[in-house]
Design goal:
Elements (H helix, E strand, L loop, with lengths): L2 E5 L2 E4 L4 E8 L4 E10 L6 E6 L5 E3 L7 E6 L4 E6 L8 E10 L8 E4 L3 E6 L1
Parallel strand pairs: 2-11
Antiparallel strand pairs: 1-3, 3-8, 4-5, 4-9, 5-6, 7-8, 9-10, 9-11
Length: about 120
């Protein structure tokens, strides 16, 4: 059974930095797309940043130049470096990873982390 474990959230002042981590473990035969979503209170979950297996990245306009997504394929881990944080970045952040979880198929299944709270005070 594949599990995603997130860490790194917390409370930080505006202008500060945090680094989120999401480690996948279990029956993993391959990982493709890895990404981070953010969900502020009363809003829908929105894509913040994504990275494919080859390393190409994409970002929401609101975080470009401030957030950096990266991955360590050997550790099945994705990171989100969050710099110059703003109060409007306050949200629960979820990682989402496409995992090939069986050796008998090349189908990739999306898994979610449990979420980690990021709170930015003004």
């Amino acid at each position: 059974q594949v599990q995603l474990v997130e860490s790194g959230g917390g409370l930080v002042q505006a202008g500060g930095s945090l680094r989120l981590s999401c480690a996948a473990s279990g029956g993993i035969f391959g990982i493709n797309f890895m990404c981070w979503y953010g969900q502020a209170p009363g809003t829908q979950r929105e894509l913040v940043a994504g990275i494919i297996s080859g390393g190409s990245t994409s970002y929401a306009d609101s975080v470009k130049g401030r957030f950096t997504i990266s991955r360590d394929n050997a550790k099945n881990t994705v990171y989100l470096q969050m710099n110059s944080l703003k109060p409007e970045d306050t949200a629960v952040y979820y990682c989402n990873v496409d995992v090939r979880d069986t050796s008998s198929s090349y189908f990739y299944r999306a898994y979610w982390g449990q979420g980690t709270q990021v709170t930015v005070s003004s």
